[in-house]
UniProtKB/TrEMBL annotation:
Superkingdom, taxonomy of origin: Eukaryota
Keyword field contains Transmembrane: yes
One Pfam assignment: MatE
Transmembrane segments: 20-40, 69-88, 110-140
Family: Belongs to the multi antimicrobial extrusion (MATE) (TC 2.A.66.1) family.
Lineage of producing organism: Eukaryota, Haptista, Haptophyta, Prymnesiophyceae, Prymnesiales
UniProt cross-references to InterPro entries, sorted A to Z: MATE_fam (IPR002528), MATE_MdtK (IPR050222)
Organism: Haptolina brevifila
UniProt keyword terms in alphabetical order: Membrane, Transmembrane, Transmembrane helix, Transport
One term of GO molecular function: xenobiotic transmembrane transporter activity
Record's protein name: Polysaccharide biosynthesis protein C-terminal domain-containing protein
Length: 147
């Protein structure tokens, strides 16, 4: 946000766009590595914070696996949030967060109870709302010519 604010404040939208592109590149690289680790070694990572003998371990493992699909979109969402703050626009991130949380609020009971997915439904609802947020921010940043 500070680098975007500095360049955008100076009227350099191309510079702001370059800062956003750099952040997106890093997010995609780090997100891909993180997703690969979560997909290939979820138990190893989970055992760092939760013993495999814990009653919640099987639920936590499934939750982690499902949430891993939204790691990159969650990072893109964070960058979008920061980019708009850098443009001194706090309303757009508020609207995106509100819509994303509303989507999660609607999907949670449907997937948890109606679809009988339990904890996996909660993970999927959150992943879908994070993907929605990431895609929304990408579209909005393209519209603002930040991409």
């Amino acid at each position: 946000a500070p680098l975007v604010a500095k360049t955008a404040g100076a009227g350099d939208i191309d510079g702001a766009s370059k800062r956003v592109a750099e952040a997106l590149f890093l997010a995609n690289v780090l997100g891909a590595v993180g997703t690969a680790l979560l997909v290939l070694r979820p138990s190893t990572l989970l055992n760092i914070v939760l013993p495999s003998t814990a009653p919640a371990a099987p639920y936590a493992l499934r939750y982690l696996q499902l949430r891993s699909i939204s790691l990159i979109p969650a990072l893109l969402s964070s960058i979008g949030f920061a980019a708009f703050r850098g443009l001194l626009d706090n309303i757009t991130p508020l609207k995106v967060s509100l819509a994303s949380n509303l989507l999660n609020l609607i999907l949670d009971p449907i997937l948890i109870f109606t679809a009988h997915m339990g904890v996996a439904g909660a993970a999927l609802a959150t992943a879908v709302s994070e993907i929605f947020s990431g895609v929304t921010y990408m579209c909005l940043m393209m519209r603002k010519r930040l991409l």
